[in-house]
Amino acid sequence: MHVRIGGRAIGNNCPCYVVAEIGINHNGDLQTAKRLIDVAASAGCEAVKFQKRTVDVVYSAAELSRVRESPFGNTNGELKRGLEFGKEQYQEIDSHCKKKGIVWFASPWDEASVDFLEEFGVPCHKVASASLTDDSLLRRMRATKKPIILSTGMSTLAQIDHAVEVLGRENLIILHATSTYPANYDELNLRVIPVLAARFGVPVGYSGHETGIASSVASVALGASMVERHLTLDRAMWGSDQAASLEPNGMQRLLRDIRLIEMSMGDGEKRLLPREVPIMEKLRRVGL
Q1: 124-169 residue pLDDT tens
Q2: pLDDT at 287
Q3: For residues 46 and 12, what is the distance between their CA atoms, to the nearest angstrom?
Q4: Residue 228: CB partners within 8 Å, gap ≥ 6?
Q5: Taking Cα atoms as reference points, which of 140, 198, 141, 138 lies closest to residue 164?
Q6: Fewer Cβ in 10 A, N or C end of the chain?
Q7: Helix count (H) and strand count (E) of the chain?
Q8: Buried/exposed code over 209-248 (b: 16+ C-beta within 10 A; e: otherwise)
Q9: 145 lies in which domain range?
């Protein structure tokens, strides 16, 4: 089964679709967001992803009033509102991505945010791991008839089964994920990738939150059709997701190594290569 996003087919025998998760690593600054888009496009990513929330819907009044120090103020509400882009900022993001030739979409955390993103004609919607059990939100995303990317961090197999039942399997991509930031390598459990592929019969990918790239590259060898990694300009920047992100050089190396792994996998048919023949003739004492 294949899913198409932005004209690209995703699934078996297709190049891995690489998404740079900008998320909230822009820290509420549009110019930083544009610089991250530039880095992703330069590295060869197919898409960048943001997060969109209606703050007063996603968070309770008590949560928003909770004391939390940040560059935006002294409460969690001031932080959440400071990180949120509105229509004007997304218009600039949309224009900048088109100029750079890169797809963009987002994880909507509430129904109004789905409608907001639909105004921009995004090619798909991403279900954040935190939203996997939100049936109402899943149904609103599915009502758009766009491809859905389902992230599965902090979820049981039974919960994933239910989410897939709500969404249906058509135009669905499932991402294996571990929702710790940054994730320890012994928490990643990459062998779940082929398990999910066999269970659901849809393209399966990997959303990584570890600090390096080796495991994300390995996920492609295990069959990941999509790889998503957070992107930052500098891990030392302020922000909750920066430490679990790749810096520009890391994203460039990730793309390089994924493409090398794809080239190296071959077709599984054992054959004598023409370049091996002279070496065989030189080194073998006996043979046909």
Answers
A1: 999 999 999 999 999 999 999 999 999 999 999 999 999 999 999 9
A2: 67
A3: 17
A4: 18, 19, 20, 21, 49, 151, 175, 205, 206, 207, 208
A5: 138
A6: C
A7: 12, 12
A8: bbbebebbbbbbebbbbbbbbbbbbebebebebbebbbbb
A9: 2-283
Map tokens 């002279």 to a residue: 278
- 3-state SS track over 64-77: HHCEEEECCEEEHH
- CA dist 28 to 10, 33, 79, 85, 147, Å? 31, 8, 9, 7, 27
Report the alpha-carbon distance of residue 212 to residue 242 in Å, rounded: 13
- Report whether pLDDT(266) > 70: yes
> What's at 242, amino acid-wise?
Q
CATH of residue 30's domain is 3.20.20.70
CA dist 17 and 234 (Å) reads 24
Respond yes or no on whether the N-terminal peptide bond of residue 182 is cis (omega within 30° of 0): yes
Tokens of 7: 């004209």
Cα separation of 288 and 273, whole Å? 15
Classify the C-alpha dihedral 262-268-271-277 as positive or negative: positive
> What three-state secondary structure class fits 34?
helix
Kind plus residue range of the DSSP H or E element containing 138: helix 135-143
Whether residue 37 lies inside any domain: the answer is yes
What pLDDT, in 10s, does the model give residues 58-100?
Answer: 999 999 999 999 999 999 999 999 999 999 999 999 999 999 9
* Inside any domain, residue 288: no
* pLDDT value of position 288: 58
Residue 278 to residues 33, 61, 264, 282, 283: CA-CA distances in angstroms? 53, 74, 22, 6, 9
What's the total number of domains in the chain? 1
Helix (H, G, I), strand (E, B) or coil at 7: coil
